[in-house]
Amino acid sequence: MKNPSSFALALLTAMLSVAAEAAPVKWYLQDVTFEDGARVEGSFVFDADTNTYSDIDVTTSPGVAEIVGGVETTVSGFLYDRVSTRIVLAPDPEIVYIDDAAQDAIGQGVGIVELSFRSPLTNAGGRVQLATTNGPPVPSGYAGEFSCPPPLDYPCSDEFRIRVFASGFVTPQPFQAVPIFGPWNFLALAGLLLWLGGRRVTSGQYRGTR
Predict the structure, then answer these.
(1) At 142, phi and psi to the nearest 5?
(2) Short-list 28, 25, 49, CA closest to 174
(3) Which of 121, 108, 149 lies closest to 44 in space, CA to CA?
(4) At 90, is the secondary structure helix, strand, or coil?
(5) 139-198 pLDDT, tens digit each
(6) How far apart, in whole angstroms, are the C-alpha atoms of residue 11 and residue 7?
(7) Is residue 122 within a helix (H) or strand (E), and if so which, with residue range?
(8) Is the dihedral of CA 193, 199, 205, 208 positive or negative?
(9) Which residue pairs, CB below 8 angstroms and at least 24 apart, start in 196-204?
(10) What gap in Å lies between CA 159 and CA 153, rounded to an integer?
(11) Alpha carbon of 183 to those of 125, 131, 175: distances in Å?
């Protein structure tokens, strides 16, 4: 090969690309609003290889919800930091239910957010739409927030409050892929670069003596 250093650079680029594609992705909620205009903000991590959600940090602002039967009522916002233990359905790349590990049902009530996606989340990232009322429902319906007023815990039958998402999508912020592209890979590549560099120096010295 006329330029071995170019080959090494191409190899490094390819290895880093593969590592990035295999890394978990941090997803950010973008332009997510309820029908009353209240907002949802935050982020979460999803690893498509293990089907695992983590590092959940989501907040909903106060607004207006609908009680079963069509009656409207005000609701406070909630914080969310884990995959919900109140919902039996296991999370997957197209849906997850989240709640707050420290929620005080007696003092604050209980909130649960359903994040339903119109296409599966993957480690490749991209822009993924939430299942909002701005489009057809997914099998679970529309994404949104379900809550119970204090002192009731979930499920709260006739006091069940619903806020449905009117808009929103998620976009990624991938993690650095150091755990995938490990130290032995870097050592091997460094050795290759040193060997190629040594060959170039030796070759130059040989040409200089002729």
Answers:
(1) -120, 155
(2) 25
(3) 121
(4) coil
(5) 778 889 999 888 888 878 778 899 999 999 999 975 544 444 445 455 555 565 565 665
(6) 6
(7) none
(8) negative
(9) 196/4, 196/5, 196/7, 196/8, 197/5, 199/4, 200/4, 200/5
(10) 10
(11) 25, 41, 17
The angle, 0 to 180 degrees and rounded to 10, between the axes of the packed helices 4-22 and 183-208 is: 170
Per-residue pLDDT, 134: 86
Q: What is the DSSP string of 32-49?
A: EEETTS-EEEEEEEEETT
What's the start-to-end Cα distance of the chain, in Å? Answer: 22
Average pLDDT per 10 consecutive residues for the chain, totaling 210 residues: 50 45 87 95 96 96 89 92 90 94 85 95 94 85 89 81 94 58 52 59 50
Cβ–Cβ < 8 Å for 46, 121 = yes
Residue found under tokens 């991938």: 174
Report the greatest alpha carbon distance in the chain. Answer: 94
Q: Can you count the helices (H) and strands (E) in the chain?
A: 3, 12
Tokens of 84: 């919900």
Structure tokens at 206: 């040989």
